[in-house]
Amino acid sequence: MDIIFEQQLKPAARDTLSAALVMAEQGIFVSPGFGVENTVCGCKNSTCFRPGKHPFIQERPDYASLDQNEIIEMWDRSDLNLIVHTGRRSNLLVIDIDHRDGGFETYLDELAGLALFQSTFAVATGSGGIHFYFRCFEKVGSRKDGIAPGIDICCDATKRENISYVVGPYSKHISGGVYKPLEPKPIITITSNDIERISAKAKKRATRR
Ligand SMILES: [Zn+2]
Questions:
Q1: Chain Cα centroid distance, residue 65
Q2: Residue 60 above 90 pLDDT?
Q3: Is the confidence at residue 207, as pLDDT, over 60?
Q4: pLDDT at 106 over 70
Q5: 73: CA distance to ligand 1 center in Å?
Q6: CB 19 within 8 A of CB 167
Q7: Chain-wide mean pLDDT for the chain?
Q8: 10 Å Cβ neighbour count for 37?
Q9: I need a labelling partner for 163 at 20 to 30 A (CA). Which of 64, 103, 140, 143 fits?
Q10: Res. 99: pLDDT tops 80
Q11: Ligand 1 center to residue 87 CA distance, Å?
């Protein structure tokens, strides 16, 4: 298993393009997203509904690559965020722990001690949450609150026209925060049985509160 991230990144190269190249080397499809400057989305649209969280190539939101040269060409400016495509194309599932609806407390009480969460690659999100990355070789639909309130599953898109993704390392959040990888770790495999098991555990906690 490949350990990501810091070993592969030179200290001076902690930017979204370098992170994209490391992800792509491991079979994870990536594309650039709009960055954030002074709390304004790079798309410059005053009614942007997902500031800093949408693909840069708006006509083809599903356009993403594993090819190092193609990715370098896609990153034709330095202020771009990183879109990490989840689901079967990347064999990637991300569990998104959010402060919304007590998600972070549920994580601390029920999930943080589990080997699954201690052993896999994770990214501190720009809003103070955590993205846990897992290899997943089954079809699992993305679901808001899929594990418990405030803990989402990001994997396969549930509608044909939609794409499923997370914002990746070194991207800027609208709040001014930056997405930062936690300790270098491999991305370990999760199964649908694991997901059922942890969501039963987390939901029990959530209903007790
Ligand atoms: Zn925007």
A1: 16
A2: no
A3: yes
A4: yes
A5: 21
A6: no
A7: 91
A8: 12
A9: 103
A10: yes
A11: 23
pLDDT number for residue 208:
63
* Structure-block tokens of residue 28: 């994870």
Boundaries of every domain in the chain: 3-208
Q: Ligand 1 center to residue 32 CA distance, Å?
A: 12
- Beta-carbon contacts of residue 17 (< 8 Å; ≥ 6 apart): 71, 72, 75, 80
Compute the distance from residue 40 Cα to the ligand 1 centre, in Å: 8
Length of the chain: 209
Contacts of 152 (CB under 8 A, 6+ apart): 95, 96, 98, 142, 143, 144, 145, 146
User: What spacing in Å lies between the alpha carbon of 110 and ligand 1's midpoint?
Assistant: 35
Which runs of E-coded beta strand occur in 5-80?
30-33, 36-37, 40-41
Distance 174 CA to ligand 1 centre (A): 10
User: Mean pLDDT across the stretch 150-176?
Assistant: 91
**How far apart are the CA of 180 and the centre of ligand 1, in A?**
21
Q: Measure the CA dihedral 175/13/16/130, to 10°.
A: -60
Q: Whose CA is closest to 100, among 128, 121, 126?
A: 128
Position 47 pLDDT exceeds 60 = yes
Please choose, from the candidates 2, 48, 45, 42, the residue with its C-alpha nearest in 3D space to the C-alpha of residue 25: 2
